[in-house]
């Protein structure tokens, strides 16, 4: 019976497989494994022989290591904690405590291509930020090079700052961001979008990194967001009032990547006409841009005919439609229409003509309400709304906690604005630098306002709070504890203010931890048979059925937010996940009757402990039972 891997996909192997599909002649063998002949690959991508080694590229010390680290599989797991969760059984939101690089690796397959929007507010590298160290397995040379990151026991030194005096000041930050953004891109939907807050210290390096990972052609905009209208009083020469938000699309050509914002104010006043279908404005059908003309757009240059009695318009002349109109400028310059002839015919009820002196002018009706929704316009690149500045970020924190337990938190309204343009009502939103979980609060509030069913995934390192901080004085030992508590408090506040609310304000709490399996599980061939026989279990002491269940879900690339229930079958406990996606039983000595009952349910997947069966014939019997009763079920053991 096949054993589960219990480790994430090796992204290097996966990348090689994709390249093999396109360039099979570039595949070679390296140390007994598939590899890439990069000289041939370069030639395949060039019409001529490449001269020398020079290229336009962005490099730093550690870039290659960051790529290797992103592709390296992990055996870590996400351990669920029902006691720290809110509304565990019903929520589809996730909160993950621990290193976000490991979390992103574990989410790779389960949430591949499912995240509509990512927002992150990473460390800005001001010289006083903690930068995640990713070299968990170090040689002595690496240890000496990165000694400030670790204490003498090899534990992460959270108090270490990435000072500008460090030789690897920019390199460490770039490496941290590169590996995480590589993994994050894989999670985006085809119309997905990522928003990244950043200040001047690293904005140019970040854009170069994003150009590489997301593609320069998928750059959308560098938003200017006014967070401090008064200006920072510690600045020299110029008091800075704004920060940047870089926006990249998964696919710039996908029209649903960014939605428009509802029109308001003077834009609404433009809709000064009304008919039986509601308020509208009349927009000229002639394209005023002279670059569009009969030569460049011949299919948009044709005559229209007006009925002089009622101003209706058609594409052919007859006894009713007699007055001919061409899309020419008043000075005789030939331009063209904005609609093709077939569109004029298909949407003719939107076309009208009005007399201006002796000339007819052709218009199309643009309604304020379309299918019950307000007309939209493109969001602008300068954001100056009062409610998005830092004062409102602090206010939102103080309303929930009673004190400023976080420094410089973003305002919920800022993230809500991104959610409104970057998601639909059933989207997943990810923030893997969650901080105080402003993003989670924003998701819940937008759902409350528009009846949406969006869900969030928050990831936050359990970084200790400074003992002198307001947070520590308030009883919070780690940033992640503040982050989780904020979601709980914000949800409770929403329910108090609207008891009828149906918004999902809970979350399942998970912790990044070492594998559920003992080392012998991954390398039994290295141990003597006597030692293997003496081992009581493949599974680490203290790991629960719930730990094992969610570890199997990740290994089988299933989302960890779905519903499940537990039943007793023939005296053993059985876990049923998402209506038959998986059935698991981790009891010892599972009776044949229980195996038959599980097989009768015909799940897509079934998993047992390797030690659930006393001997090899018993395992073979399990396989035969499933072949007979559930031939399409995949059965594995741990």
Strand order of the largest sheet: 4-26-5-25-24-6-7-9-8-23
Compute the number of strand runs. 31
Largest sheet: 10 strands, mixed
Unreliable residue runs: 136-140
Dominant shape: globular
Portion of residues within helices: 25-40%
Radius of gyration of CA atoms, rounded to a whole number:
30 Å
Query: What is the SS-derived class?
Result: alpha/beta
Bin the strand percentage: 15-25%
How many helices? The count is: 19
Oligomer: single chain
Overall pLDDT level: 90
Distance between the termini: 10 Å
Written overview of the protein:
By secondary structure, the protein is an alpha/beta fold. The chain has a ten-stranded mixed β-sheet with strand order 4-26-5-25-24-6-7-9-8-23, sandwiched between helices. A six-stranded mixed β-sheet has the order 1-31-30-29-28-27, with helices on both faces. Strand 28 (572-577) and strand 29 form a beta hairpin. Helix 3 runs parallel beside helix 6, helix 4 runs parallel beside helix 6 (169-187) and helix 12 (438-450) packs parallel to helix 14 (479-497). The model is unreliable at 136-140 (pLDDT under 50).
